[in-house]
Amino acid sequence: MALDRWIALIILMICMAYGYAAFFTMDAGLPPFMQRNAIWPSTFPKVLSVLAITCALIILLGQGKGDDEAKEGDINYRRLMDYNLGQALLLLAMMAGYALMLRPVGFLISTVAFLTLGAMVLGERKLQFLLPVTLLATGLVWYLVQQVLGIYLRPLPYVFGTGG
Amino acid sequence: MLEGIMIGLSTAFTLTNLMMVIGGCLIGTFIGMLPGLGPMSIISIMIPVAITIGDPSAALILLAGVYYGAIFGGSTSSILINAPGVASTVATSFDGYPLARAGKAGKALTVAAISSFCGGSIGAILLMIFAPALATVALLFHSSEYFALMVVGLSAIAAFAGSGQVAKAMLMTVLGLIMATVGEGALFNLPRFTMGIMDLQSGFGFITLAMAMFALPEALYLVLDPSRSNNETGGEIKDLRITKAEAKSIAPVIGRQSIQGFLIGVLPGAGATIASFLGYAVERNIAPKEEQDQFGKGSVKGLAAPEAANNAACTGSFVPLLTLGIPGSGTTAILLGALIALNVNPGPRLMVDQPEIFWAVIISMYIGNLVLLVLNLPLIPYIAKVLAVPRNYLIPFILFFTMMGAYIGQNNATELLLLVGLGICATVLRFADYPLAPLLIGFILGSMLEDNFARSMQIYDGIQFIVERPMTLGLLGIAAILIVLPSYRARRARNRAKGIADGD
Is residue A95 part of a domain? Predict the structure, then answer.
């Protein structure tokens, strides 16, 4: 089975869970005065779940040809191992790490760390160029966002207070 | 109309707004050149900036400038390194890249700049003439028609998705609509489908979703496949001039494609990508035999056609956005989100209630086009240098900016985790050739669609509004045709192909 059908299957299951919630569980808590309305909060989701299940089934059971041949210049997922999968996964993990560290460690440290490590994951080794660039960029973005736009970004770890 | 133009001129020609146009064009051009950041991502990044400005006209002028700049910037990277950062400039690379390889990069960029300028300007004139007419028609629309119109728009998106893709585009659209139902709707004051998670109470953030659908997968693709971003600009850029004969040959192409592109841009769902491909195809078909062979090998006509068409289409896509409140493309969908955040409700009342916004945007389109031309022609030799930013620096910065975009919008670190999760899903969807723009358009239109549907249901106390209002019925009929026709055609083509194979 081609990847697009697997995805259709997963979406189908999500939509069935969604449809189950819309048809069977949502209306239980509906206050009596709302039950007299022509439209309930569950009306639209009911329609959507039916539509989505239909579409997913068309893809899943349809006779359309699978995407065996990747388009030129596109990534062929069947040969995913030939690409830099490790780098991509590492970068994604670092993004998640950045999300978790942003508040406790502060914007400046976590951003410099993310940009430097990100470049190093991709193969950059010249730290004497990399560090000044990331420091400068981080400072510039922080200044722009916090001072010019007035959107609060905690600059330093929380033990040092709230900053700016 | 003259009065409107005067209002627009007086709003657009303030120092702040002129700076906004110039700044927007510059930012758009420079970021748009980086492969991986299309107009959609750049506008999402700029939204927090625009919202902070506070003045809706200035913000919209800035975003429109960014939009044009990004389209132009995108064509620069398609021409120079065959890396179209934007779907609508893919057709530009067909002939632009061969020209650049032949050492005529300067000429190619100049042709692109001039065609873009003409396409954008002609589009703006057409917008000025047709938008008020469309808006008058739009005043006849009630909530049931709005509902039907949005259904038409959504089905058009599915219909233009290309052969064999209709079901996928439909599924993505519906998925977008489903995602829009998560959270607390204004109409019912009940949290829906939040699964008890507090962070989902307010629904998915639209910038987060936009970043996850477009910028993140593109960046991941760049990581996965280094050949997508190799810097082989090679040689310096020279030979800026266009000969008289070339100018003569591209003039009619630009004229035709500006009008055609604008008309395609007006249709919700078609947008600049379709316009550019169609423009390229049409010009190739009507060209004389000997010129036809040149297409794809470095024809100036083949470069001018998609460039004029995609810029005109960008302008055209502002017609449904400003007059009906319906975004015709992913980019205008993001613009619509920004407008709503700025407390402007695009729709038929916009021209009546806030004419200064409407006209200022149109006037700033002229200024934006002019600024782009004036700025870019002398800058062309230097522009190419930006592309030399090493990939090792480029990718972490792209990832960082997508995260900043999502974080600044919501000021919530959970949003970043959501971004990573959705980004992975989007990348997998892209592997399987699922179109991602319909999902975002569905998401943005979702709440409006439901509100209008609910309002008509309440007014008519049931579903009968569909039969009682002829216009609604007609529009829904069109929507049905738009969905059924492509699948019917695909099926017939498939059957025919099968028949030939069987009879062999």
Answer: yes
Secondary structure in 3-state letters for B125-185: HHHHHHHHHHHHHHCCCCHHHHHHHHHHHHHHHHHCCCCCCHHHHHHHHHHHHHHHCCEEC
Instruction: Verify whether the Cβ–Cβ distance B185 to A41 is below 8 Å.
Output: yes
Residue A155, SS3 per DSSP: coil
Question: pTM of whole model > 0.90?
Answer: no
Assess if residue A34 is contained within a domain: yes
Per-residue pLDDT reduced to its tens digit, A2-29: 788 888 999 999 999 999 988 888 887 7
Position B175 scores a pLDDT of 92
For residue B198, give its domain range: 1-226+242-495
Report the domain count for chain A. 2
Instruction: Say which of A18, A38, A149 has its CB closest to residue B49.
Output: A149
Residue A31 lies in a domain: yes
The answer to the question of residue A69 being in a domain is no
Cross-chain CB nearest to B399 (options A15, A55, A95): A95
Domain count, chain B: 1
Paired tokens of A142: 């922080």
Q: Are residues A52 and A106 both part of a single domain?
A: no
The phi, psi pair for B475, rounded to 5°, reads: -65, -40
* Smallest Cα distance from B319 to chain A, Å: 29
User: Do residues A86 and A148 share a domain?
Assistant: yes
Are the Cβ atoms of A44 and B403 closer than 8 angstroms?
A: no
Q: Which amino acid is at B246?
A: E
Domain containing residue A122: 82-160
Q: What is the Cα B340 distance to its own chain's centre? A: 18
